[in-house]
């Protein structure tokens, strides 16, 4: 049995076409079902639904043989023990710094002010501001980062941005792009040795599909 860890939402939705290209259909929709283990049309492959930030942990400790997770999550979690054979080019977005539209970020940086920054991405934010030589107090949040500058909790946030609509709806502006994000395939190294044939086959189909999609959209 091969176990693939996915999170609900964009990663699940955007992994489906890759599975489909491998001739695999997931037999239940996690948006409608409460089941956490989903059978597929391939009897020896199952999908487990876990929280996005738990995908690397499941794969690292062998609760799943492989998984799909964002580069942001991998950086925050660390990627010890994980083989990362493929950038799947899905769930693309960026990690950015955003502030209230009436906050002069450039001036604050120029003057060397100490910034209060709220984020779920403490490690990414710490490295980014350290490299810029900007002093920051980081405030760890688990969600709704956009609220922090609006309530005076923070001067800035570091968060994922895709279309920019969420920032706009909350009167925030993107002032720096820190890095581009996409989702990666991660594989448990022991599983790769023990179940080499079926896992390699999946990696190969995914790899061909990603390459074909890139060519089609180029
Ligand atoms: P948007 O309004 O399209 O810029 O999307 C921003 C919101 O969606 C923020 O709350 C982000 O945390 C979330 N988001 C955007 N892209 C992703 C992604 N690839 N994976 C997870 N969350 C995302």
Terminal CA distance: 37 Å
CATH topology category name of the largest domain: D-Maltodextrin-Binding Protein, domain 2
Strand and helix order = EHEEHEHEEHEHEHEHEEHH
Largest sheet: 6 strands, mixed
What's the Cα radius of gyration?
Answer: 19 Å
Q: Low-confidence segments, ≥5 residues, pLDDT <50? A: none
**Can you tell me the number of structural domains?**
2
Number of helices: 9
Estimated share of beta-strand residues: 25-35%
Overall shape: it is: elongated
| Assigned CATH superfamily of the largest domain | Periplasmic binding protein-like II
CATH class of the largest domain: Alpha Beta
Q: Give the oligomeric state of the chains in this entry, treating copies of one chain as homo and distinct chains as hetero.
A: single chain
How many E-type strands? Answer: 11
Can you give the helix content as a percent range?
25-40%
